[in-house]
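dude i think i finally got it to work??
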Amino acid sequence: MIWLDVPTPWGMRLQDAATPNQEGIHELYDHIMYYLALVLGLVSYILFIIIKDFKNNAFAYKYLRHGQTLEIIWTIFPAIILLLIAFPSFILLYLSDEVLTPAMTIKVVGLQWYWKYEYSDFVSETGETVEYESYVIPEDMLEEGQLRLLDTDTSIVVPVDTHIRFVITANDVIHSFAIPSLGIKIDATPGRLNQVSALIQRTGVYYGQCSELCGVNHSLMPIKLECVPINDFVEWLGEMDYAIVA
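look at this
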């Protein structure tokens, strides 16, 4: 199967889900679209009937003073539709906010105009944590197969099927850490720590971007995340001579 984990020209739908949170967003999208189609059909039908029946009678409304039954219907019906949309939305919102017993934590810092990542659960023999910066690859340095304004010189590397907590902040202005396929979009605010979790269920390369206007080079803050098997992740740590904090 070919997965869609990058934006595409004229793309009309969401990117393929890689986490339970994003699967829930897809389901909510389809759920809301059902009721929107229902409302569109009903309103269009009523409008058509009104135009058809009264198009030749400019005074058809002359003796129409009050319709209590009609007013009750067009008040209650939209309220029911809104409730049917609101309850699933609130449930998903609160489920997405829960961060329960994560297996590892990655700290994300937004700066003008690049990202900085820190794996605080892993330290070297000298006591230093895994920490590095990520910059966009300039257009004139792109290699074949790399994506313009999306590929970076370093990636976030995470293991598959692992509950990961992202702690997000910023060092200058407000940024936004967003990876659509993972269902993540959260503000990076100076002086504040926001958190979100992800359980990535398939390996792959996922792309995101800063989604908050943060200055002249706002478009040059892409995010690249590589989800790999746990053995490859341990090997990646071993190449940098880091170990898991006891």
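Residues 166 and 196 are 5 Å apart (CA to CA).
im so relieved honestly
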